[in-house]
C-alpha cells in the first residue's frame, strides 16, 4: 500500500519536473491518475473527521453514562437491564451497518491505491468505539446490580478482552488501541494492588502470564490491522510485564542482569521476517526505536552515583516458576532472534551506510548486564559503575547523533542531543557544584543546542542536492 506521504512528495516533485520541462502535461496527468493526487486532500479530511468522530463518540458515551447515572436509582432492575442491553445492541448494530458500507473508489484508481473512506464509514467507526465504551459501563453496572464482587483491575482486564474480541472481528485499529490501553491499565492496577489477593482464577492466570498473553493478543492484531500504534502499545505492555516477572520471580543478583539486558535484546532482535507470511519490515523500526529508548533510559538511570553507594547483600529467594515461564519463553525467543541476526550478518556483505549496527547494540546490552552482575555478585563497583554507565550513555548519544546526521533523521539526531544534554545537566545538579559553574553549564548547553540545531538543518537541507 502506497502511503499518503509518498504521494504528496511525488506530487510536489512532479509539479517541479513539469515546471522545469522534464516531463510534459500528459505524463503528469498519467502520474496524477495512477497515484490519485486529487484524493490527497480528501484523505487528510477523512483522517480529521475520523479523529472528530472518535472524540465525539467518547464524549457521547460519557454523556450517556452520566444520564444513566443520574436516573439510576429511579428505575427498576428490569428497566436498567433492558436499557443497558438495548443501548449496547443498538449502538453496535448501527455502527456495524454504517461501517460495512463499501468505500468509494474512483474508476481510474490504481489497484494498489487505498480506497477513500466515506463519512458513513467514519461515523460507523465512531459508533463502534462508542459501543466498546458502553460495554465497559454495562459490565460495571451489571456487576453492581447483581452484587457480583471483584477488583477494579479485573473489570478493566475483562473489558479489554471484550474489546479485543471486537477488534479482531472487525479489524479496527481504534478498537485494538483501546483494548491494549484497557488491558495495560488493568495489569498496572493488578501489579500495584497489594491489598487484594484473590483466589486462583483465570484473571490471576492472565496477570501472572501477561508477557506471553500480551504477545499472543496484540502482535497478531497489529499485523492484522497493520497498525504501528497497536504494536507499540503491545510491545510496551510486553516489556513492562516481563520486567515485573523478572523482579518477582528471580533474586536480585541474576534478576538485575536479566532485567537490564533481556528487554532491549528482545526489541532490537525483533524482525517481521520471522513470521512465515510477512515479507515487509513493518514493525522492526518501531521495535528498534523502543529498544534505543529503553537503553537510553536505563543508562541515564544507572549513571546516577547514589544508586551504587549501597551494596546490597542479595538474599537467596525461592524462584517463582510460574513467572519464570514468561522469562524462559521470551528469553528463548530472544536467543532465536539473535542467532537469526547472526546468520544474516554472516551471509550479507557489509553495508557502507553509517548506522547503529547490531554488533554495537549487542555490546551495549552485554555491558548493561555484566556491570550490575559483577557489582552484586563479585565486588562492589560504585565509582567504576557510575563512570561506565556515563560512558555508555555518552556513546549511545553520539551514535544517535551520528546516525541522524548520516540518514537525515531529525528524531534520531534530537534524541541523541536530548540524551547528552540531559546527562550533562544531571551531573551538574547531582554533584555539589557552585552556582557559577551551573550557570556556565546551562549557557554552554543552550548555545550548543542552538548551534547544533542550525547546523543540522543546514546539513539536512543539503542532503537532496548531494
Written overview of the protein:
This protein is mainly α. 75% of the residues lie in helices and 0% in strands. Helix 4 (77-99) packs antiparallel against helix 5, helix 5 runs antiparallel to helix 6 and helix 7 (173-192) runs parallel beside helix 10. It is globular and about 70 Å long.
What are the main properties of this structure?
466 residues, mainly alpha
Question: What is this entry, summarized?
Answer:
This protein is mainly α and 466 residues long.
Report the C-alpha radius of gyration, rounded: 27 Å
Q: Could you state the oligomeric state of the chains shown?
A: single chain
Helix content: over 70%
* Number of contiguous helices: 17
Mean pLDDT: 79
3D shape:
globular
The chain-level structural class is mainly alpha
Order of helices and strands: HHHHHHHHHHHHHHHHH
Number of DSSP strand runs: 0
The largest sheet, given as strand count, sense and whether it forms a barrel, is: none
Strand content: under 5%
> In whole angstroms, how far apart are the ends?
29 Å
Contiguous uncertain segments of 5+ residues: 105-116, 351-355
Amino acid at each position: 500500500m502506497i502511503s499518503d506521504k509518498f504521494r504528496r512528495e511525488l506530487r510536489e516533485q512532479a509539479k517541479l519536473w513539469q515546471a522545469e520541462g522534464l516531463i510534459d502535461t500528459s505524463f503528469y496527468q498519467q502520474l496524477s491518475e495512477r497515484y490519485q493526487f486529487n484524493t490527497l486532500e480528501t484523505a487528510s479530511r477523512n483522517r480529521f473527521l475520523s479523529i472528530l468522530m472518535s472524540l465525539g463518540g467518547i464524549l457521547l458515551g460519557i454523556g450517556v453514562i452520566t444520564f444513566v447515572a443520574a436516573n439510576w436509582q429511579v428505575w427498576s432492575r428490569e428497566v436498567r437491564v433492558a436499557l443497558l442491553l438495548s443501548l449496547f445492541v443498538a449502538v453496535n448494530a448501527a455502527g456495524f451497518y454504517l461501517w460495512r458500507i463499501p468505500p468509494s473508489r474512483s474508476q481510474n484508481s490504481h489497484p494498489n491505491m487505498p480506497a477513500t473512506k466515506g463519512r458513513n464509514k467514519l461515523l460507523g467507526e465512531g459508533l463502534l468505539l462508542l459501543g466498546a465504551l458502553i460495554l465497559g459501563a454495562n459490565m460495571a453496572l451489571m456487576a453492581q446490580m447483581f452484587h457480583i464482587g471483584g477488583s477494579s483491575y479485573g473489570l478493566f482486564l475483562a473489558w479489554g478482552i471484550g474489546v479485543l474480541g471486537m477488534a479482531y472481528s472487525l479489524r479496527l485499529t481504534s478498537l485494538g488501541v483501546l483494548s491494549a490501553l484497557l488491558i495495560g491499565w488493568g495489569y498496572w492496577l493488578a501489579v500495584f494492588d497489594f491489598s487484594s489477593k484473590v483466589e486462583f482464577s483465570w484473571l490471576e492466570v492472565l496477570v501472572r502470564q501477561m508477557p506471553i498473553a500480551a504477545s499472543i493478543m496484540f502482535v497478531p492484531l497489529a499485523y492484522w490491522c497493520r497498525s504501528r500504534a497497536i504494536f507499540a502499545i503491545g510491545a510496551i505492555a510486553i516489556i513492562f510485564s516481563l520486567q515485573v516477572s523478572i523482579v518477582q520471580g528471580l533474586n536480585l543478583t541474576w534478576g538485575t542482569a536479566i532485567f537490564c539486558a533481556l528487554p532491549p535484546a528482545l526489541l532490537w532482535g525483533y524482525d517481521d521476517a520471522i513470521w512465515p507470511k510477512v515479507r515487509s519490515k513493518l514493525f522492526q523500526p518501531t521495535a528498534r526505536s523502543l529498544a534505543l529508548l529503553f537503553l537510553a533510559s536505563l543508562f541515564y538511570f544507572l549513571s546516577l552515583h547514589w544508586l551504587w553507594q549501597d551494596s546490597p547483600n542479595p538474599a537467596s529467594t525461592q524462584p517463582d516458576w510460574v513467572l519464570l515461564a514468561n522469562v524462559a519463553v521470551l528469553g528463548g525467543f530472544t536467543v532465536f532472534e539473535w542467532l537469526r541476526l547472526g546468520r544474516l550478518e554472516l551471509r550479507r556483505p557489509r553495508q557502507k551506510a553509517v548506522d547503529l549496527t547490531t554488533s554495537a547494540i549487542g555490546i551495549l546490552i552485554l555491558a548493561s548486564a555484566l556491570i550490575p552482575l559483577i557489582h552484586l555478585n563479585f565486588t562492589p563497583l560504585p565509582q567504576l559503575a557510575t563512570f561506565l554507565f556515563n560512558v555508555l550513555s555518552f556513546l549511545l548519544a553520539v551514535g544517535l547523533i551520528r546516525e541522524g546526521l548520516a540518514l537525515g533523521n531529525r528524531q534520531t539526531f534530537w534524541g541523541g542531543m536530548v540524551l547528552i544534554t540531559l546527562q550533562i545537566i544531571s551531573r551538574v545538579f547531582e554533584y555539589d557544584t557552585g552556582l557559577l559553574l551551573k550557570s556556565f553549564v546551562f549557557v554552554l548547553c543552550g548555545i550548543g543546542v542552538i548551534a547544533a540545531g542550525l547546523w543540522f538543518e543546514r546539513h539536512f537541507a543539503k542532503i537532496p542536492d548531494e
